[in-house]
Amino acid sequence: MSLHTVPRRPDCRTCGACCGPSEDQSLFVDVTARDVARLSRRYARMSTHHRGGMVSSSLALPTKRNHNGVVCVALRGTVGKRVSCVIYDRRPTVCREAIKPGDRNCRALRRGLGIER
Predict the structure, then answer these.
(1) Domain-located, residue 83
(2) How far apart are the two ends of the chain, measured CA to CA in Å?
């Protein structure tokens, strides 16, 4: 890539890198009360976090194990090939705001999964 080439924004429908936790864990992402109002009980569940000796309970989107490792329970498809979110219109706030397509965090997750160099 030359200095004058602007990197193309990744297509989220062929990625899914941000839909998996950064470590193998049973929880995926905390959700807010507003998120719960948009989600069904199938997706928002009460879960217990164990981090750094601290224990807290919160509502969370659970994960599932598939051939890609651990991913959000709402993700369908194959990470790095073709994916979709079955709750996209109702997705939690953190899914809407935490990582933007093509930002530094997005690119780091994509590199970590070998989707881009």
Answers:
(1) yes
(2) 12
Q: pLDDT digit string (tens) for 55-110?
A: 555 556 666 776 667 788 888 888 888 999 988 898 888 888 888 999 999 999 88
- Residue 48 CB neighbours (<10 A): 11
- Number of domains present in the structure of the chain: 1
Identify whether 48 is part of a domain.
Answer: yes
Nearest to 37 by CA among 78, 74, 83, 87: 87
Domain that holds residue 27: 12-112
In a domain, 2, yes or no: no
pLDDT of residue 58: 56
Distances (CA, A) of 49 to 28, 54, 64: 10, 8, 17
Question: In this predicted structure, what is the pLDDT of residue 84?
Answer: 93
117 part of a folded domain: no
pTM here is 0.70
**Which is nearest to 24 in space by CA: 87, 66, 76, 74?**
66
